[in-house]
Structure formats: structure tokens, C-alpha cells
Amino acid sequence: MTETRYAEDVRLADLVARHDVGHLEQWLEQRPAYEIADEISRADQVTAGVCFRLLPKDRAVEVFGELDGNEQQKILSAVRDQSFRDIVEGMDPDDRARLLGEAPANFTQRVLAGLSARERELTAPLLGYDAGSVGRYMTPEMVRLKEQSTVGEALERVRREGAEAETVNTLPVTDAGRRLIGVVLLRDLVLADPQDPLTGLVDPAHPRAHAADTAESAARLMQEANLLDLPVVDSEDRIVGLLTIDDALEVIEAADTEDIARQSAASPLDGHYMSVGVVRVARSRVVWLLLLIIAATLTAKVLQAFEGELEEVTALAIFIPLLVGTGGNVGAQAATGAVRAIAVGEVRPGDVIRVVWRECRVGFLLGSMLGAVGLLFAWVMVDDSGIAVTVALTLVVVCAWAAVIGGAMPLFARKVGIDPAVISAPLVTTFVDATGLIIYFLIARAVLGL
Amino acid sequence: MTETRYAEDVRLADLVARHDVGHLEQWLEQRPAYEIADEISRADQVTAGVCFRLLPKDRAVEVFGELDGNEQQKILSAVRDQSFRDIVEGMDPDDRARLLGEAPANFTQRVLAGLSARERELTAPLLGYDAGSVGRYMTPEMVRLKEQSTVGEALERVRREGAEAETVNTLPVTDAGRRLIGVVLLRDLVLADPQDPLTGLVDPAHPRAHAADTAESAARLMQEANLLDLPVVDSEDRIVGLLTIDDALEVIEAADTEDIARQSAASPLDGHYMSVGVVRVARSRVVWLLLLIIAATLTAKVLQAFEGELEEVTALAIFIPLLVGTGGNVGAQAATGAVRAIAVGEVRPGDVIRVVWRECRVGFLLGSMLGAVGLLFAWVMVDDSGIAVTVALTLVVVCAWAAVIGGAMPLFARKVGIDPAVISAPLVTTFVDATGLIIYFLIARAVLGL
Asked: Where does the chain cross the membrane (chains A, B) (predicted)?
């Protein structure tokens, strides 16, 4: 018997070393919990960690319960360990996903407890939380209250455990199965009568986030609902941590900085503005510039197509930068406004028609005013009423067109699942440039009879 | 005697009705505090309020002390009153400024207490807090602790007064003269031994803001220092309120929305994106568009100056939108990055030289890559090596130039006291357009020997 066990132990370590996730899973499926617990106790730290993380959630809870304190500790520290991280990184994405399913709440909290913010960020992916998810930003260090306590007992618990917690302003209240019932605010606890039952203070409607939700949506929810802390639960509503407002603020600031960078068709810098190297800055900007210059060749194609008209009336060329520039500005304004409105939640994808109709009227209004200025100016400059009328009419049409495109593109992007912030002002501008030139020469043909 | 008094009372009400601030001040200067208190007691509410607000700060404290509870209440409610607001609005800006000097902390807090956020916003200007200052956003409803209490006494006070307070997470600690010594966090109070003196828990280095500071800088300070509440003091370091994180967040969101709108050369909308009317949207965008179209006439002037070259080589016109568009994109990226870096505090005005040198190298790098693409593309399109080289060289120079302008303009704006967010991408683009065209034709002359 000992022989077989030993062989199996060796085989497990072997399978882990070979990244043979399939066989490991098969092996784990066939064994009862106590036997897995036994094998895990005998295995080295990394093998134990990998096996444990491969267990389905409910079995993992069971196995964890079978282990004694030392062995639990072994698995906990395995997940924080560099060699475990190396194993995970060496796996195929598919296997990695199987290995890193959502971990049980109890386990998650104990793995993350006592780690610094930086260590938590490194460890959270190993617990199954994707980049940008709430799980990456939450703190597990909170004081959890039991629903059947009195206010006095709860306060006693805060006094006992509070020094270790990252925050005690918000206190999650759970049932016997760690499921979140609601939260109590420290303030209410302090103001209440110690003899009262805790349940009277619990707010069961307090918003919560799932660990797999995006951190940005959770942070914006906190901002809207004026929350200092947001309780984070797993898919079974078991509490795993709290997202505190200072972390939420960092998430929002980073998201805004990213949106703003995207608006100018650059990627956000992953560092301090003054210290990031020249090459990295250039790299953050070059991809879009290359795409845009390729798109801009469209403008050259359009002009080449109208070269006959250009040769006939060279004066038409004079107004090209003014027309495309103005169209671009109107489009950029509309796009920037729409992207921000989407980011702060004022526009929903279903609003496309309304936005288009509104922007069309706004653009027409703007175009009429700018057209009047353009008419006057072109007349003074080239002393040719035909060209002046062409410029003015083009401004009216291009402004309406640019506003519609600028307003609609971010909404369409959102609808097809692209981040609307990708619809940058330069992208809109480049698109409006090429189409605006076609409008210009078609109007010129009609007005000047070319 | 009663006769004279009555006459003076009438005269005061008269002076107030005539907005004769000069005579009122003169009258108040000559009287001792108890006499002013007496006159204020006899006067109608609005007259009393105006007289009181005209007193220098230290005399106001003295007079307030002389008044009995009812009379104090009269002045407090006068300042919240519509007719007082009307009086203030009817005054010359100079007189208004004299009337609305900073009010004593004690008085401020009592005027603002019990008002809704909306009412506070309406009333704060009458206490001398300018638009956009911390005084407009702070809450006066806090629990103030005395420095010589014990932890137990402090907790008792929180229990007694906490229900009325907007927040008790942060508790300002003051000396006998209401001067802020530091703050205690509710959390520390709960965790400490009730017998301990409070002073051990006070953080005297906790950041504070002055009521006249801009709300945005105070809010960003809270974000950086991870504070839930920021104590707000008057110019004599007396506590007047707390800025809570939820209000700070609104300030930051509004500032960011404004910056983003400005980046596209629009004013921020003062309403929900979906509900603001078409004319108001157009108005928020038209001012900059008009300025920019006037600036864009420069591009037409430049092209007119080079009309001879254009007539000789029409093919040069074909690349104009591509060149100015790419230059504009590079400039917009640099400007957007610099504006954001200034907003989040990563760049200081003294960094101009470093930013320029860095952007110059970034722009040169970008220009080299884009120039290579441009060379290839122009060659294929017009089959003329001279024009292709002209386009490529122009891209290199224009990109470096645009990056420098985009990076430097926000910093210069900041240096001369203009909001750097005004240096919008469209503004940079328009500037780069005109100068880029000059660069283009100068290079064309040299390369093509025109």
C-alpha cells in the first residue's frame, strides 16, 4: 500500500512537471476527498498547490476541510510561491484556465491575507481573477460580522480584529456559509445601543460586486452610489473581499487616463510621464499613427481622382486644409462628447438614432455659422463668387456630416463590443477628411460647372 | 435717546436699501461692539444680516457673542434668505466683495448646518466662498472633538452628536479657539482603550485645505493621500467643515469631463448629454470653432502664397491633407499627453525644456517611421521620386515640430496662468497645419528646384 501511494505521489509530481493537466484532472476526479487530502499532504508544496487548484470548487472546499492546519498552510503558501507561478506561466492558455478556475472564498481570502498590495496583484491571477477584474484590486483584510450577534458583540469583534483589517468603516455581515447578507457601517455600530441585535443595522440592499466583474464598472458604481467600500463576492455570493474607495479611485483615474490617451489615438503610458523612455513613448503612439497615415492615403486618392478639377481651378486647393480641418474639429468635438457620455453612463447603445438626429441638427447649425464666415472670407481672398459659394456650402454639409459621424461612431463601436474610446478624434478626423473632400469636389462640380 | 436710535435704525435700513456700502462701513467702524449688537437686534432681518457681514472678522466674532440666541438666529437665517441674496446680487462687484469677506468659522458652520447640499451651494457664496472653492463643497456637519478629552469621552460625544453629522469617519480635533489641531479616525477611536487620552490618537500632520482653495486641488490631494475626508479651515486655521470623498469625487469627475471637452475645443455641457438642447450643444462648441476657422484661414494664406508652386506641380496638392492630418495627429497626441500629465500632477511648469527635448526626439522617431511609409506610398502613387522625397522629408520635420508644439504649448499656457486644458488638440492641429504647409513648400522648393 505504501508502495502504491509512493508511486502515485511520484506520478502526481511528474504530471505537474509535464504540465499534464488532463491526466491530473482525471486522477482527481476518481478519488474521494479524504484520499486527495491524504495525497496532497504527502506531496511537495507546488504539486499540492496545483492539484488543489484543479479541484472543482465544491470539492476544493471539502478537501480543504480535511487538511490539518499545517497542510492548509502549505497550499496557501504554494499559491503565493514563485515556482507555482512559473508552472502556471508555462502552461497552455486552455490548461491555465482549467487550473485557475474561481477559488473558494475562504481559500482566496486566506491566500491574499497579509500580502502587500503589490504581492496581492501578483497573486490574484493565480486565484482565477482576470486582469482588470475586481478580484485584482480588492482587499481580503476586513472584519466579517455574524448575523446573529448583538451590536455589542460586533463592536467587540471589531476591537479584536480591526487592527489587522485594511478598513473597518464597512463591515460585511454573513450567514453561517460565508454568504453575504448585507453590510453594517462602523458609524451605525458606534451610534447604536450595544444590546440591540445586529440585524436591525444591516443594509441588505447595499450594492455588491462579483470578483470577476470589471474593476472599472465596480469603481464607477461606488462613485455613483457614494460608497466608501464595496463588498466583493464570488459566484456563490460568498464574501471574498472589499474594494475600498482609494483603490477604486486609482482604477477610475487609470481608466480616464487611458480614455484620454485613446482619444488622441495613443496608448496610455505605463509609467510616470517624465520618466518613461523616448522609445516607449514613441511605441505608445506609433501604431495608430501608422494606421491613420494608411487611412489618410484615401485623401490623396480622392484628390488624385479630382486632379482634373484641381488643375482647372488651382484656387480650389487653397481651401482644402481649412475645410478638412474644420470638418475634423466638428467631428472631434462630437466624438469626444459621445465617448465621455458613454464612459460616465449618460448614453446607452440604444440611443444611436437619437444621438444621430441631434448631432445632425447641431452640425447643421454649426455649419451654417461657419459657412457664413467661410463665404465672406473666401470671397475676400479669391474674389470669385463661385468658389466662395462652394466653400460655404461645403462647410454646411461637412459639419453636419462630421457631427453625425463623430456622434455615431463611438456608439456603433460600443454596440459591436469595441471600447468606444478607440474611436479617437484623429480616427474620426481622418475619416471625415477623405469623405469631406469628396463632398467638396462634388459641390465644386455642381456650382462651378466643371 | 429712543428717538435717535430709531432714526439710526431707519438710516441703516435706508443705507442697505440704497446699497450704500461705504457709509454703512463707516458707521460700523465708529461704533463699539455692544452698540452694533444693539442696533442689529433692533433692525429688520436683512439689514441686520448686511451689517453683520460687513464687519471685519474679529469684530464680527465679538458682536456675535454680544447677541442673544434669538438675535443670532436672525442673522443666521438672514444670510440664507432670498432677499439678502437679492441685495447682494444688486451690488457693484466691489461692494459685493467687501460685503462677502470670509465669515467667522463659528458663524459659517451655523449658517450652513442643516441645509441640503443644494441649499448649501446657494448659501456658500454669501459666506465669501468663490465658485470652485472648497467652501462651496464642504459639509459643516461634523463632530468636533476637544483635545483634552479621553477616548471614552470622545466616543460618547460621537454617540451624542453623530446622528446629525454627515460623516463621523474623520473627527477634527480643535483647541479652545476652534483652531484645528489634527484629526482622529473613528476606527482608531473604536480600537483604542477608552481610558487613554485622545491626544495619543491625533494625527497633527493630517492634510488640510483652506476654504478658499480650489476644490479641484483639494480633491486631487485627497485622492493622492487616500483620504476619506479632508478638514477645511479658514484663514486663521479654525475648522469650518469637512470635504468628504463623495463630494471630492464629483469635483474630480466634473473637472475631468471639463478637461476632456476642452481637449476637443468644446465647453463642457452643463447638463445630461441626452437632455441638453441642440442650441445649447451648438453654443458649447461654436466659439472655438469660429476661432479655429479664423486661424485656419492662415492655411489658405500660406497656400495662396505658394500658388505658383501649386500651379506648376499640381501633384503637390494631393498630399496636403495627408501631411497636415498626420502632423495634426502627432501634435494632438503630444498635447493630450501633456495636458493629462499636468492635470494629475506629473509635470510641473519648470519641466518645459525636458518635455520639449523629449518630444523632439519622440517626434523625430515617429516622423522617420511615417516618412518611410510616406516615401513608398507617394512613389507608387505619383511615380515621381522628387515628390516622394519631398513628402517623406516633410513628414519627418513636421512630426518632430508637431510633437514639440503639442508638448510645449500646454506647459507654456500653464506658465502664463491659462488652464492648460485650453490647449486643445484642434488648436494644436490648426497651428501645426499652417506651419506644416510652410515646411512642405520650402522643402518642395529645395528638392524640386521650384
From this structure: 286-306, 318-342, 362-381, 387-409, 421-443
